[in-house]
Design a protein that fits this description.
The complex is a heterodimer of chains A (288) and B (286).
Chain A: H1 5-32, H2 49-56, H3 58-89, H4 96-104, H5 111-122, H6 128-134, H7 151-176, H8 180-188, H9 193-201, H10 206-222, H11 225-230, H12 242-252, H13 256-286
Chain B: H1 3-35, H2 39-44, H3 57-65, H4 76-106, H5 112-122, H6 128-141, H7 147-156, H8 159-171, H9 175-183, H10 188-196, H11 201-217, H12 220-225, H13 233-243, H14 250-270, H15 272-282
């Protein structure tokens, strides 16, 4: 049905809010990143100076290399674990729904709660290290969270714990959607279970791998709460990510233009990952 | 396959699955158990053991007396803030999503696809990119540092999700029903109120769960746009845990973290099936 006045009128506020508060604000932030803004927005154009300055800042390169370490490990481990759990749980096990619930519940928690819980678990003074020592392993040490070379791996651990169940659920849905005729045929030919997974099932999970990758990658780039609650960026700046950098420079160091530039680069990074994926999804929508 | 071998594999499977499940439960177990211990027992004992002396004092302290900002109010006022924020934000964003989904699927409009694509991408943007102009806008509207301001922000950035959910649901809705309602003279709102919404229970549940969890757990906007009177619970919890000077009251922190987790855990336990569906829907599996 062709839209008359009323439908257009009623969708207009949403359209306006999204256009202004998403795309208008993005343009505004991009504009700020080319100005001399410090504590407050200023509108004096300085060209690419902020980007040049950003690239030269050690804090930024540290944040980027942390993101690289965090994102690659987080994505690879969460996908590998999620797929493994999905395959294991797919073996007609008892209490499947109970196990699924246990693997998934961390997703219901806030990253602040997750960060708080893991902060104390990983703290050598009260956490796992202390516990193992009181249980008799007096040589047991696990002080990653206080060690600036290792702290980023603590962020990986907590993030993996939080999202693996979700990845598992995606893979499980994918596994259940695989064409069973091919599997039965292969089974009749005497193929072993692991061969069936390797040759028939996993290759068909391509779209799930892509969805999981896109979601995990964009979550990794956006990660902020977890780091704040778990390590607050420390020790030193060893767990700074671009999101932490942006907040620091914009709101506590009064370098708003540099902060804006850093958020523009975050958007670009997410765009590179998400846009091709959304383009594909939209084509599917259009083609019904 | 050899019978003993297959039995062995079966046992190994269960050992791995149950072992992993225990590791997934561990952090929340630790949170609860240690929230019920006196502080010196945490320091001298270990995190895994049950309390020797059970106490609710840490819970009382986290709830009503812990120092969070300037005042020792506990988490209570912030728990209330979170509800004052979440309920209107969820209701509004769900209604807007239903309306948008209806319009986008039932009416032919220029730019409808472009608009939907624009909303879809807004789901993925890093919110850092809108923080500065949104702070200015809230200041301009006089909503900075208020719960109302947070409602506005969460509704705006929830539109993408809720529209996506309802749009996909209504796209698969039987058109005959709508057509026959129109023949019977139902107007724009008639179709929405008498046909679509009464048949939308599953997607409404999914959307409400998704929005409730997201907004309850939200931190960045809360940290950026609220003040001592309007902190949501996540921000208050983070202040409680990170800013305390002197003796670290682990047991109070554990209790606080669990208090912050309770509402979404309840939602998860009560509606686990829908929760999963909500997560899947949120993953843009259209």
């Amino acid at each position: 049905m062709k839209a008359g006045f009323l439908p257009k009128l009623l969708i207009a506020p949403s359209a306006l809010l999204v256009l202004v508060c998403v795309y208008g604000y993005i343009m505004f932030t991009i504009y700020l990143s080319f100005t001399a803004s410090t504590l407050m927005p200023q509108y004096e154009w300085v060209g690419t100076a902020n980007y040049v300055r950003l690239m030269g800042l050690e804090n930024w390169s540290v944040a980027l290399s942390n993101l690289w370490v965090f994102a690659s490990l987080y994505i690879v481990i969460a996908m590998a674990l999620g797929l493994t759990l999905a395959i294991l749980i797919d073996q007609k096990v008892r209490a499947e729904s109970g196990l699924r619930s246990v693997f998934l519940y961390p997703m219901a928690l806030s990253f602040i709660v997750t960060g708080t819980a893991w902060k104390w678990l990983l703290d050598p003074g009260v956490g796992l290290e202390h516990t193992m020592q009181t249980l008799g392993w007096s040589n047991f040490t696990f002080g990653w969270i206080k060690d600036s070379d290792m702290a980023i791996y603590c962020v990986v651990i907590a993030a993996v714990w939080q999202t693996t169940g979700f990845v598992m659920a995606m893979f499980l849905a994918g596994l259940r959607g695989v064409d069973s005729e091919q599997i039965n045929a292969a089974r009749l030919d005497g193929a072993k279970s692991w061969q069936i997974y390797q040759r028939i099932i996993i290759p068909q999970l391509g779209p799930v791998f892509i969805s999981a990758f896109v979601i995990l990658a964009h979550m990794a780039i956006k990660s902020y709460d977890l780091v704040i609650a778990l390590t607050n960026g420390g020790p030193g700046r060893s767990t700074w990510l671009p999101s932490v950098f942006m907040y620091q420079y914009t709101f506590t160091r009064n370098e708003m233009a540099v902060g804006a530039a850093s958020s523009v680069l975050m958007l670009v990074a997410i765009g590179v990952v998400v846009l091709p994926y959304l383009y594909g999804e939209m084509r599917k929508v259009k083609n019904g | 396959m050899d019978k003993t071998l297959s039995r062995f594999l079966r046992i190994a499977l269960y050992v791995i699955l149950v072992g992993t499940a225990l590791m997934f439960i561990l952090p929340v177990y630790v949170m609860v158990v240690n929230s019920l211990k006196p502080l010196d027992e945490i320091r001298s004992g270990n995190l895994m053991s049950l309390p020797m002396e059970w106490t609710l004092a840490p819970w009382r302290s986290a709830w009503s007396t812990a120092q969070i900002g300037v005042q020792a109010t506990g988490l209570k006022p912030y728990f209330v803030n979170s509800f004052l924020l979440v309920i209107p934000a969820v209701v509004l964003s769900t209604l807007i999503g239903a309306l948008n989904g209806y319009i986008l699927t039932q009416f032919k409009m220029r730019f409808a696809h472009a608009l939907f694509a624009a909303m879809l991408f807004s789901v993925f943007i890093p919110f850092q990119i809108v923080l500065i102009p949104m702070a200015k806008t809230l200041g301009f509207l006089g909503l900075a540092g208020t719960v109302k301001g947070l409602i506005f922000v969460n509704v705006v950035y929830g539109i993408g999700f809720t529209t996506l959910f309802f749009r996909n649901y209504y796209a698969a809705f039987p058109t005959e029903l709508i057509r026959s309602a129109r023949m019977d003279g139902a107007n724009f709102f008639g179709v929405l109120l008498r046909i679509l919404l009464p048949n939308s229970a599953p997607i409404i549940v999914v959307t409400v769960i998704w929005q409730f969890t997201n907004i309850w757990n939200e931190f960045l906007f809360g940290a950026s746009f609220s003040d001592y009177t309007s902190f949501p619970l996540t921000v208050a919890l983070n202040n409680l845990v990170s800013s305390s000077t002197g003796v670290k009251e682990y047991n109070v922190h554990f209790a606080g973290a669990f208090i912050a987790a309770i509402p979404t855990l309840i939602v998860y336990l009560v509606s686990g099936k829908y929760f999963v569906r909500g997560l899947m829907a949120g993953s843009v599996k259209g």
